[in-house]
């Protein structure tokens, strides 16, 4: 099933059931529904229309990643959901939303969505964000666990862009693929 039709179907079903988007009940229902539909990171990555060779600051992407220092890292995410903040010659700095609980993902996205470049919510819409901007926010601490450096040489797929009208939905997807520790352990460590 194509990602766009999945989102439309899930949104309609959530509305019909009366589940608020950020509720525990909605997340549990979504997880079961994704299993039934066999929606996985791999199926999402097959959407050729979404695949990009490069990233743009302020967009949101999924991609497969293999950490360069995976032997020494205590844990890492093999399938990050990232909002790039800065580009470098060998990679980029970004916010991987998988490193915080769902309610914080939605809170972070809500804060960043106030800094969009236009109201169209289409392929031209991006968040006007940077590391300096995030560091200057009153509650910058909530962003700290998410700030990660990615090396282009370690990216193992093309980048799959998430459209702005799908940002909130994508934050709910249980697609993190943590290595060496479970999601529960990691979120407990990071607080």
H/E order of the elements? HHHEEEEEHHEEHEH
Total domains, how many? Answer: 1
Taking the sheet with the most strands, its summary is: 6 strands, antiparallel
Radius of gyration: 16 Å
Physical arrangement of strands within the biggest beta sheet: 1-7-2-4-5-6
Span between N and C termini?
35 Å
Bin the helical content: 25-40%
Instruction: Please tell me what the overall shape is.
Output: globular
Low-confidence stretches: none
Mean pLDDT metric: 88
Secondary structure tally: strands: 8
Strand content: 15-25%
The helix count comes to 7
User: By helix and strand content, what is the structural category?
Assistant: alpha+beta
């Amino acid at each position: 099933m194509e990602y766009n039709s999945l989102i439309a179907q899930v949104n309609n079903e959530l509305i019909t059931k009366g589940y608020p988007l950020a509720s525990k009940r909605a997340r549990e229902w979504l997880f079961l529904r994704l299993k039934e539909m066999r929606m996985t990171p791999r199926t999402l990555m097959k959407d050729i229309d979404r695949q990009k060779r490069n990233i743009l600051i302020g967009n949101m992407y999924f991609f497969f990643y293999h950490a360069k220092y995976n032997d020494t890292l205590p844990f890492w995410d093999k399938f990050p959901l990232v909002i790039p903040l800065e580009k470098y010659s060998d990679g980029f700095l970004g916010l991987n939303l998988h490193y915080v609980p769902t309610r914080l993902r939605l809170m972070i996205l809500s804060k960043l969505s106030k800094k969009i470049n236009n109201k169209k919510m289409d392929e031209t819409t991006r968040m006007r964000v940077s590391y300096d901007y995030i560091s200057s926010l009153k509650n910058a601490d909530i962003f700290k666990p998410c700030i990660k450096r990615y090396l282009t040489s370690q990216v193992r797929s093309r980048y799959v862009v998430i459209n702005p009208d799908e940002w909130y939905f994508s934050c709910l997807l249980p697609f993190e693929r943590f290595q060496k520790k479970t999601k529960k352990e990691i979120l407990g460590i990071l607080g």
